[in-house]
Amino acid sequence: MKFIELTTDNNRLLSNKLPKPKKNYYTNHKINGELMHKNTLVAKIVDDDLQVINEKMLPSYFKLGGNLRHWLENRCIDMHRRNSRILRKMLSIKTTNEIEVVLFAHAHTLTDNYWIRLSSELDLKYEDIAYSKDLLFNTAISGDTSKWDEFLELSNHLTPELTLGGSFEKGWKLENGEWFLVKAGNNLNNSVELIASELCKYFNFKAVEYFKYNDACVYCKNFTNNLEYDFEPMFDFLGEDDDLELSLDYIYQINENYISDFLDMVFLDALLLNPDRHTNNYGFLRDSNNGEFIGLAPIFDNNLALFATKNEIIDLNIGNSGQIKMFYLPVLEENRYEIPYLDYKDLKNIVKSAYQQFKPQNYSVEFTTDFIWNKYNFIKSNLIK
Prior knowledge:
By secondary structure, the protein is an alpha+beta fold. It has 16 helices and 11 strands.
């Protein structure tokens, strides 16, 4: 075998033979078209800038001066997910540019009714881009390509998987006309999601209910009730700044009656030491018919709580003086939060049920129950009345 010495001259020679990376169209070209909500024109897009037509239906992100490209990028599938590469290959998308990928699906998601109609496609209607099949679900969730040929035979290759964010492999499943989100995770991730879901039900919190899908996944119903509501994430107000106090300010301005639901979420995050509450997994619901705010979105996405991001925890007091006391207690105290009742035996049954379904290693039912019970009592004893 002949080896080429990696000298400067040879490097230059090799680089000339390698294929050049393709330039992304939207790197050098502005976006022109229309921001739509269903079949309602919300704003004209002229060289990346919005000319607002319907202020009432405009996403809050743009009311606060947000950038169109950043908004589009935030609607794109996480390119680091392994199965996103397979999806793009099946769809013949030869770019990793988030703008181009998201516009392949007209920037339409299954959590709101907004979409982009480019200047080259002004005859398109909402019905033309609405999702009606889930043929790429198995590809999104597990990398399975067995439906590739069937998918290619379709005239419409639009899929909601291209606008489904988050770092975990996930996919949209259509059953009897309703969309369900299926999310993959390890046994601990999935157990934690079930524990959080059952605790929310126990506390009577407004929350998404999760169930076991198979040994590797959990699932939940689309909380927008099949797009009856538009989900507006807190990202639209704060960007990536996950400051709880700033969130409270915006919630108070919109409707102070929503604050109690927000505090329930903060309490749950404290109870389960959830480090992954960010501005894309909480926010508002708006009526998709008139744009009016109707409340906060239900609590969802808790699979990185408890031990999911921590290794070999043996100290029950972990997180008390740091995470809980520093981040959560000040918000709960300032707003005079009343901690809900929790019985130890009921808590243990909730943990036991989740662990029986997914059988996580390293942490027993007893230790996990004691760990959560420790947080509960720490919060309870440290809340200043």
